[in-house]
Amino acid sequence: MGISITVNGKRHLLAAAAETPLLYVLRNDLQLNGPKFGCGEAQCGACTVMLDNDATRSCVFPVGAVGKAQVTTIEGLGHGERLHALQKAFLAEQAAQCGYCSSGMLIAAKALLERNPAPDQATIRREMAGQKCRCGAHNRIVRAIQRAAKELRG
After folding, report:
1. ∠ at Cα 120 (118, 125), nearest 5°?
2. Which one of 21, 50, 71, 144 is CB 3.0 to 4.6 Å from 93, fit for a cystine?
3. 2Fe-2S ferredoxin-type domain: from which residue to which, for each copy (predicted)?
4. pLDDT tens figures, 127-143
């Protein structure tokens, strides 16, 4: 029995148990290594992906529960010469040091900007509080999200 999911706009038929964490399917079956395994308990945010427009911790989300939702990983946000405004802003603000949290940070920021295209600094800090950065780049991350929001608004 297979599970069918759409990831980054492409449909996949998987031979995975429904209770398998989405993160494991993304990394092991689809070779999408952007989402990271951090804590395995939905606490750090390194595994964050978007299900439709909602930031979701893929380390605890069963692949069988994806249903018809569209899964977006960092690989689907932008790449190479076609970076998303958030990725450009993270680079410009030097918002990554080690980079381990960046995938989850960027996806969570994308979900935030989908809900609120003009968040103030306090809103960004509150909404991103669940995404952990051990390097201490928090101020740069906030600036990057503000920069991207401004660019996306035109």
Report:
1. 120
2. 144
3. 1-77
4. 999 999 888 778 999 99
